[in-house]
Amino acid sequence: MFEVFSFGSSGWGDEMLMGALMTVLVSASSLLLGILIGIIFAACKLSNIFILKIIANTYTTIIRGIPELLVIYLLFFGGSGAVMYIAKIFGYDGYIELNAFTIGTIAVGAISGAYSTEVIRGAVNSVHKGQFEAGKTLGLNGYGLYGSVIFPQVARIALPGIGNVWQITLKDTALISVTGLVEIMRQSRIAAGSTHEPFIFYTAAIILYLVITRLSNILFDKAENTYSKGFVSKGVP
Amino acid sequence: MRFELMYESFFKIIEGIPLTLQVVSISTVLGLALAIIVALMRISGRKSMSIPAYYFVYLIRGTPLLLQLYFVYYGLGQFSFIRESILWPILKEPYWCGIITLTISTGAYSSEIIRGGILSVSKNFIEASGALGLNKIKTFLLITLPITVRQALPAYGNELILMVKASSLISIITLMEITGIARTIISKTYAPVEIFLVAGSIYLIINFIIVLAVGLAEQKLGTVKAN
Q1: Chain B interface includes A81 (CB < 8 A)
Q2: Fewer CB atoms near the end CB (10 Å): N or C, chain A?
Q3: Structural domain that includes position A215
Q4: C-alpha count within 13 angstroms, C-beta hemisphere, residue A28
């Protein structure tokens, strides 16, 4: 029964592990892209500029109200076209095709960015007002204030939330298998199709996802402990 | 922007709304029943009940819905004893596989919401109800449950929206609901932006109605302070 998972050309063991690696890679790059988007849009939401607030709110409402699959189809079918359109403005007239990894990262990154936006906004809001005031009193503003006073605190508070976003992102990457990127989901589909053993390969995929979830939980717990050093209890401003 | 195409595809895509709503509502109702059972198992205090419930939730929440769908639709059909069982007429239909998967998924997620709701009911209420002479079952039905419903409603509203979004996945197992029809039109016309706008707006409207309905229900039931 388990010979289908042997390594090398006769079994699917190494292919499945490569699929798992691809899932981790695309999830990690999507999470990073999402955090970047999250920082930008959280700043928009917290700003006093009306139009920026509207843009940020529209983005989070759309992403949270529309199926992830539709967003992925939009970028899968429309991504290359959009890039070529932009390239044309800059004078490049050739054909550009984005690979599945890039499209997947942009699509899942855009989805996870909406969740990150809320996490980061909440974290900035929960930094005590006194910290802003104290920073300003010290003559800091802009980057000095946000970079060296607020950001370290936001990072600590946002970490558990980002951990949740990571779990969501990890599961969302299964959807980009429809675009052809060979990650766990796609690989188990291919293997199931060629061996006629869907049960065993989907079970293997379930186990791989659970292992990744478990390992990343341990990692996030460790990071939380590291960043919470010096904090005796929660809720003390 | 091809507005003509958007107009035409709108009428094609709305034909998928009944299927989406049907699948969502059937699996929501079944999933709620499952969720209550799982939540009660988890807080029962008996290890033989709470441990299986814990691992069930862990398994479902730790794996992608698409994988669960494939597992039910393709994975189970591999075995001849399932193909020969009385369940096969149900398990061979993508429609029922979709409903089963969505039911299990929402059952796991909602059980956490319900568990949180039950645990948030203050002990004082339970003690007061005991002092009034109500037995355990009556206390649960008359005191704990109504408060749980009110406490869990906002989070359950979110779960309903997630369900509407999740129902789009059944298009992958050949069901022609909103996303399925949208995908077909996209691959025929290659107008992803236009079709995305049409299908996306339909989903936004459905979800907006859910938000309004849950908001109304919340207002009607009022809010309860946790303590």
Answers
A1: yes
A2: N
A3: 2-227
A4: 8
* CA-to-CA separations, A144 to A129, A141, B39, B153, in angstroms, rounded: 16, 5, 48, 42
Question: Per the domain annotation, does B162 fall within a domain?
Answer: yes
Q: Is B45 left (phi over 0), alpha (psi -120 to 50) or beta?
A: left
pLDDT of the residue at B185: 93
pLDDT of residue A232: 56
Tell me what ipTM this predicted complex has. 0.86
Q: Considering the domain boundaries, does residue B105 fall inside one?
A: yes
Domain CATH for A90:
1.10.3720.10
pLDDT in tens, A197-222: 899 999 999 999 999 999 999 999 89
Compute the distance between CA of residue A205 and CA of residue A203 in angstroms, rounded to an integer. Answer: 5
Q: Which two tokens stand for residue B28?
A: 């929501």
pLDDT-derived band at A235 (thresholds 50, 70, 90) equals: very low
**Structural domain count, chain B:** 1
Nearest to B168 by CA among B196, B190, B189, B192: B196
Give a yes or no: residue A233 inside a domain: no
A87 found inside a domain:
yes
The secondary structure of chain A in percent helix, strand, coil, rounded to multiples of 5, reads 80, 0, 20
Residues of A with Cβ-Cβ distance to B74 under 8 angstroms: 192, 198, 202
Q: Which residues of chain B have a CB within 8 Å of the CB of A172?
A: 64
Is there a domain that residue B147 lies in?
Answer: yes
- Rounded distance, CA B192 to CA A77, Å? 6
Lowest mean pLDDT among A171-180, B78-87, B95-104: B78-87
Query: Is B166's CB within 8 Å of A67's CB?
Result: yes
Q: Is residue B119 part of a domain?
A: yes
- Name which of B70, B179, B207 is nearest A69 (Cβ-Cβ): B179
Host domain of residue B118: 20-175
Residues of A in contact with B20 (CB under 8 A): none
pTM of the model: 0.88
Q: What is the CATH number of the domain that holds B163?
A: 1.10.3720.10
Contact criterion met (CB < 8 Å) for B78 and A196? yes
* B206–chain A nearest CA distance, Å: 9
**Tally of domains in chain A:** 1
